[in-house]
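FIELD: query
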Amino acid sequence: MRKRIGTTFLLVMAAALTTLAQNARLEFEVASVKRNNSGSGSAISGMIKGDRFSSTNVTLTQMVRTAYNVQEFQISGQPGWFGAERYDIEAKMPPDTKSEDVIQMFQSLLANRFQLALHKETRSVSALALVVARSGHKLTAADRSKCDPTNPNAGCGFRASPTEIIGTSVSMEQLVARLSRSLGLMVVDKTELKGEFDLALRWTNDDATPLGPGASAGPALYAALQEQLGLRLESTKTPVETLIIDRVERPSEN
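FIELD: result
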């Protein structure tokens, strides 16, 4: 009987310790959050240098996008100041922090300093489907020799501005993610194209403003996709994981 009680006690303790470990939050050693009233339009989110993590002149929308790897249209229920007020964040990471742990630390900072609480829901939303045009695609198979890991301007991936998207050794999955960010709308891959490609997409943006829902450059980008890459965007509906903001407050002073 005594042996059975002892075994039961150990099992209960093991379960409790497992729960504590699962609920333990990874956190920065120390962090500073300050309002940025510079009026500058430039922002840097989630820069890591040595044991330092920083974000400069960022809105809470930009922070949540970085911390949870979502696009702006995947965030719902936020107050008006969420995407208007800007902040500077400086934080120190514990020794031997793994790169995959930094995002969890950033999430903890948002929970602690902004009292951010959220939950996830899957919602059906209007989206754009990327498909191959009837005349066929005009993509070029990737030449990975163009990628130079020592040169950030010649690495694999994307360079983008309000009037161009340049991709080196990129997949269709990566392209739709880039288009989603540029257009501010969900884009899904329906091309059935496999492998990696080198591509250059350029269009005219007379207003010289960043792309977003309803931006005048939208139609120009759509036309450029078909003319230059042999791809089209079609309206569709798709299930998308959405972050629902349950609670958020302006941060406490340092």
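FIELD: remark
The mean pLDDT is 84.
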